[in-house]
């Protein structure tokens, strides 16, 4: 008799990447070098977890603006001598980047039984919804909603 797996239990490509092996960008210098390697034209979906799923990949100008604004937010709100809250599946040619919100870290390394979800995800694979346990703070919601409306 063959064992079968219910179709609902087979992870999609996005969840496979989300739950796969990730590498941490420990220093601010590493993060700066990493941002420079990101191909802005690679078809990135920009997703604020808890907000609406992006239906199309962002344009290169939107990706550039996201990276610049995200870098400023992280450096301002994560007032530490190290970064340590950005993870990627590949540090030279990533398909998925998890960015943890400095104001909702919990245990982002996954050592707790209920690690928090990242605040933002950059993915070259269309994301599927992730359920936040808590509502997105109003300040983060405003930041996200205004990100591309300031042009």
Protein described:
This protein is of the alpha+beta class and 151 residues long. It has helices at 13-18, 28-37, 60-77, 138-146; strands at 23-24, 45-48, 86-88, 96-99, 120-123. The protein has one domain (12-146). 28% of the residues lie in helices and 11% in strands. A 5-stranded antiparallel β-sheet has the order 1-3-4-5-2. Strand 3 (86-88) and strand 4 form a beta hairpin. The longest helix has 18 residues, at 60-77.
**Strands in their spatial order, largest beta sheet:** 1-3-4-5-2
What is the molecular shape?
globular
Helical coverage, percent range: 25-40%
- Rg over alpha carbons: 16 Å
Structural class: alpha+beta
Largest sheet: 5 strands, antiparallel
Beta-strand share of residues: 5-15%
Instruction: Quickly count the domains.
Output: 1
Write down the overall mean pLDDT. Answer: 84
| Poorly predicted runs | 1-10
Please provide the count of β strands.
5
H/E element order: HEHEHEEEH
DSSP helix count? Answer: 4
Distance between the termini: 61 Å
Observed structural traits:
disordered N terminus; alpha+beta; globular; five-stranded antiparallel sheet; 151 residues; 5 strands
Write the layout of secondary structure elements.
Elements: H1 13-18, E1 23-24, H2 28-37, E2 45-48, H3 60-77, E3 86-88, E4 96-99, E5 120-123, H4 138-146
Antiparallel strand pairs: 1-3, 2-5, 3-4, 4-5
């Amino acid at each position: 008799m063959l064992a079968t797996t219910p179709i609902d239990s087979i992870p999609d490509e996005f969840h496979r990447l989300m739950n796969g092996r990730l590498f941490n960008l420990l220093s601010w210098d590493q993060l700066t070098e990493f941002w420079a390697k990101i191909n802005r034209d690679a078809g990135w979906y920009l997703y604020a977890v808890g907000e609406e799923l992006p239906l199309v990949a962002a344009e290169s100008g939107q990706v550039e603006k996201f990276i610049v604004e995200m870098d400023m937010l992280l450096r301002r709100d994560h007032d530490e001598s190290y970064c340590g809250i950005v993870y990627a599946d590949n540090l030279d040619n990533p398909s998925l980047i998890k960015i943890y919100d400095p104001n909702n870290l919990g245990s982002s390394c996954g050592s707790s039984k209920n690690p928090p979800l990242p605040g933002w995800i950059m993915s070259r694979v269309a994301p599927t919804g992730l359920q936040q346990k808590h509502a997105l703070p109003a300040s983060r919601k405003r930041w996200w909603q205004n990100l591309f409306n300031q042009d």
